[in-house]
Amino acid sequence: MSRIEPLSADMFDADCxxxxxxxxxxxxxxxxxxxxxxxxxxxxxxxxPLHRVSPKVLTETLRAMERDGWVSRTAYDENPxxxxxxxxxxGRALLDPMDHLCAWTRAHRAEILGVRExxxxxx
Length: 123
Known about the structure:
Blueprint: H1 29-36, E1 41-42, H2 43-47, H3 55-67, E2 71-76, E3 82-87, H4 89-92, H5 95-122
């Protein structure tokens, strides 16, 4: 039997190329990418489909996505103040890989749900 190499403690160091930005795997970023896909949106518009997200968490997620260069925030000097969020070119570059992941999920949905059900019965 062949021996598998042990995992390295530094395999996810920032300079190794294997580490992905955390935003991809968080709970709301992918949904926000979808919401912004068609164009800029105001915060109140984003809250409609993301009604399960608290305003605090939505704000934190948008700020993190802005920090990572995926979303731009434009504040207009109006009364009342208006702020719009839009995908940057970097954020748009995530849409195609996300489409592939969604297609994989749709193709394997029944299998995933079946495995989850078996797992739940075994607990």
